[in-house]
Design brief:
Layout lengths: L9 E4 L5 H12 L3 E6 L2 H8 L7 E4 L5 H15 L6 E4 L14 H28 L3 E5 L12 H20 L7 E6 L6 H13 L4 H19 L7 H13 L6 E4 L1 H12 L2 H12 L6
Parallel strand pairs: 1-2, 1-4, 2-3, 4-5, 5-6, 6-7
Helix pairs in contact: 1-8, 3-4, 4-5, 6-7
Length: 290
């Protein structure tokens, strides 16, 4: 535990309604942190408060809404005061799946707006409180930030970009001793893929019919893989990794979570691009029509 109320340390978590964000919020709450859990709906706020300590405070926060970001900072500042924050966990994100050849550009913009622009907007807004508290930044990414699978190009692009932001921020903030870590899970048991599947089904119905001709089989394989996320690594494992990034005297710059993430990172590092291309396209059903 963190001790009495005068020594409790505050941490903000975005996207805490479900999945990884909720697991991180509950885990850090259990460790004694003063958790400010970013949600977008009152019902999610009520669900989070149930089963948590009296400390956990839901904060209404949409990472694409500048007004809501500013309001959340004001709310958090009123509670933590000059103590600032010991952590910001940038977790909010969506997954857009589509062949890049046919994706509507507005859908790509939406993917990047939430997963990249929104993360930096929140980070900029909360960095003054992080400086006050000599805190840390943690970004939740994915193995897709190292290995870009077909049909997940929009999502992978956002995660590659998040890795770049994390690296640059880590180096920019080094003189102030503000650690920046990025967490890269593999398959995780989380609702994001079920939400993505519903969104993908709606998106596919709007694509050029030629998309089905070229990529129909691959899209079905991608759908099956999304459903198989139910068999992935438990979200609690990611929560424990985030806690290490926030509490360790020597936090890692990158955390791979799950055997598949570690295996994917090895392949990306050591396998020649063309060999990796053939392996992935064969696995994902990408092939030329006869």
């Amino acid at each position: 535990m963190m001790g009495n109320s005068s020594t409790i340390q505050g941490v903000v978590i975005t996207g805490a309604s479900t999945g990884i964000g909720e697991a991180v919020a509950r885990h850090l709450d259990g460790l004694g942190f003063l958790v400010f859990a970013g949600v977008r709906k009152e019902s999610d706020a009520e669900t989070l408060k149930r089963g948590s300590s009296g400390r956990l405070m839901p904060v209404f926060l949409d990472v694409t809404n500048e007004v809501m970001i500013a309001q959340s900072v004001q709310q958090v500042s009123q509670v933590v005061g000059e103590k600032g924050l010991v952590g910001l966990v940038n977790n909010a994100g969506i997954a857009v799946a589509s062949p890049l050849e046919f994706i509507p550009i507005q859908e790509l913009r939406k993917q990047l707006e939430v997963n990249v622009i929104g993360q930096l907007a929140v980070t900029q807004a909360y960095l003054p409180l992080i400086r006050k508290g000599q805190g840390r930044l943690v970004f939740i990414s994915s193995i897709s930030g190292r290995v870009a699978a077909p049909l997940l190009g929009p999502y992978a692009a956002s995660k590659f970009a998040l890795g770049a932001l994390s690296d640059s921020l880590r180096r920019e903030l080094l003189p102030w001793d503000i650690p920046v870590s990025i967490v890269e899970p593999g398959r995780i048991i989380t609702p994001i893929w079920e939400k993505s599947l519903a969104a993908a089904d709606a998106l596919i119905s709007r694509l050029d019919p030629q998309a089905e001709v070229y990529y129909g089989e691959a899209m079905e394989i991608n759908r099956a893989r999304a459903l198989s996320q139910r068999k992935g690594t438990p979200v609690e494992q990611v929560a424990r990794v985030v806690a290490h990034a926030l509490l360790s005297k020597n936090p890692k710059t990158r955390y791979l979570v799950g055997w598949d993430a570690r295996f994917g990172a090895l392949l990306a590092k050591w396998l020649p691009d063309k060999l990796l291309d053939r392996a992935i396209t064969r696995q994902r059903g990408i092939k030329r029509l006869k």
